[in-house]
Amino acid sequence: MKFDIITLFPEMFEGVFDKSIIGRAKKKGLVEINYHQMRQWAWNNYGAVDDRPYGGDVGMLIRVDVIDEAIKSIKSKSLKSKAKTRIILTSARGKRFEQKDAQRLANYDNLIIICGHYEGFDERISDLVDEEISIGDYVLTGGEIPAMVMVDSISRLLPGVLGKDESSQIESFSENGKIEFPQYTRPAEYNGQKVPDVLLSGDPKKIKEWQEKQIKLK
Does the predicted model carry a pTM greater than 0.70? Predict the structure, then answer.
């Protein structure tokens, strides 16, 4: 899968996806992540991508022509003419991002993610994207962190990324919104806290029954 991230701060992503699981997936060619500096499509010679809003409100808005040019440029360089692409705008008013969204978006070949900043976007930008996504009901300084969250959660669902494809299927939220059962490792007792006896019993049937009882619905 290929991710194309349109951002004013591509340096924020440096190091985040170069280590651990996503870093290994990149080296294997399972995931491609490209960062596009929004200012390369600036509307003037000073690198401006925003402008004052009509109506006299305070703040600045990212211009529709800038984002339109960015999307057109990225799509024109797609490796596959028939690539299954989806364009996402990080937005406070967007749909809350959940595990089912990660699973849905993992079926695409290319995701173009636009990171917001300043007071917001020209409203007409909404017509250029396929969906708007929020990662929660709180205020962030920009869309870079939501983009990181989406790339991470989607990438780990791709075949081969976790090493064992079944690994992503037994984790929290992967099945009907269920939370993963509690797990333990050595030592069997620490500071008076003991591992449940059933997990030490060696009885697979009883252990499975215990695990199923521990699962809580979201």
Answer: yes
